[in-house]
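User: Here's a chain of 118 residues. Predict its fold as tokens.
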Amino acid sequence: QVQLVESGGGLVQAGESLRLSCAASGSIRNINAVGWYRQAPGKERELVTRISYGSIFYADSVKGRFTISTDNAKNTLYLQMNSLKPEDTAVYYCNYVVGSLQNREYYWGQGTQVTVSS
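Assistant: Prediction complete.
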């Protein structure tokens, strides 16, 4: 089991920055991927950014503005969000994928609200 606890969301104005954190604990072994997703009201959850086997993916909508990073010593995943836009408003979820190819497990944080006012 992996437990993920998020923090760092809030209300900001357009153009400002926020940093989200996701602290992981438990059986953190054989990590396949870590990432951030978001879900805006009335929309499906979408992938924002992900690190998978050393490769980093960013959604086109956040490229150049968001940065994903990890602190392995602290078992913490970060999402630095700069130049925020109102369309970035959503609940943000961190995600860990662990295990073998035959037995992958998916874990989610509780979600943190990010609201960007215009």
